[in-house]
Amino acid sequence: MGFGLGVDALWCRWRGCAARWWPLWLLLVLSAFDGLLTHAFLRAGWAEELNPLMRRLWTESPFLFGAFKLATAGMAVITLRLGRHSGFCAALLLIALAAYALVACVHLFWLGRAALFFAGAIPTLGAVFSSVRRELRAHQAPWRVTP
Predict the structure, then answer these.
(1) Residue 61 belongs to some domain of the structure
(2) pLDDT score recorded for residue 101
(3) Cβ-contact 38, 47 below 8 angstroms
(4) What is the pLDDT at residue 102?
(5) In degrees rounded to 5, what are phi and psi of residue 32?
(6) From CA 19, how far away is CA 57, in angstroms rounded?
(7) Assigned domain for 144 exists
(8) Residue 1 counted as domain residue
(9) In Å, how far from its chain's centre is CA 146?
(10) Over the chain (147 residues), what is each successive 10-residue block's mean pLDDT?
(11) Integer Cα distance of 22 and 4 in angstroms
């Protein structure tokens, strides 16, 4: 309160609604990005959900999965906004933003790998093993008999 440790103290040196809300909007955007890419990766079969509750929701209905993910993020934003003068809420917001930023980077990495794979820039595992096998056969010792 008097120490300036809350969300308002961290981001709201300016006056106005936008200055107070941008970290919370960023949290919602990162959460939606995570939800959309997780949905796409799960639907394509490229990933599996590790969270048991979210895995259950995904098997029940992908719509429930997305709705629960966005509702959870929305409740977090409301809670953090109501506790904006609290240093604890500011710390939670920073942790949530850092976690979602890390998740977004992981999603972008895998999205880039998938794009390169489908563009043919990343060879399949079978092609890698067959080329390694060919190289090994080409450099075998002369006394060795090849089958």
Answers:
(1) yes
(2) 92
(3) yes
(4) 93
(5) -65, -40
(6) 35
(7) no
(8) no
(9) 48
(10) 49 50 84 88 84 90 89 85 77 87 90 74 58 61 52
(11) 18
